[in-house]
Amino acid sequence: MSSTETTASASFTVTGPEPALDDAEHKLVGKARPLVFQAVRVSHGTLRSYASRTAYDVESIIDSFAGVDVDRSDTELTVTWRWEHDAAVFFNNGTSDHTIDGDPVLVFRFDRDEYPGLAEMFPDGTAFLPDVEVSGLPQSRFVQAGLEWLRQEVR
Hints:
With 155 residues, this protein is an alpha+beta fold. Helices cover 41% and strands 30% of the residues. The strands form 2 sheets. It has a 4-stranded antiparallel beta sheet with strand order 1-2-4-3. Strands 5-6 form a two-stranded antiparallel ribbon. Helix 2 (35-54) packs antiparallel against helix 6 (142-154). The longest helix is centred in the N-terminal third of the chain and has 20 residues, at 35-54. The model has no long low-confidence stretch (mean pLDDT 93).
């Protein structure tokens, strides 16, 4: 699993002679129901389960799945898949409590019943604030879940 500031991705590498790489490529990405796409489904299931526990909407992260890249040499096959949503890496790895600063202000809609203190200041349900303190995200490890499933399947 690797991550940058804007993507979450996984890579799986197989080494060996060309016939073994042919077989691995066929199983991982080339046949009906290839293993890598099944691993992606496991990742998405993990992310949806996380969403049901945390009340976050993760469908835009799932929709940002950017596909599979295959890199092959004479002795090595590397399959990489990734999600391009800016928040994917944060949902995967988690974050600590932090402050979000406005530029110059943050504007967001909120549920008046859930946030009565904000409702007193902004009765129409739209808040305008210079910054907000937010709780960190728990890690979902959705990328690792798919990668671990794949490792179990190819053993």
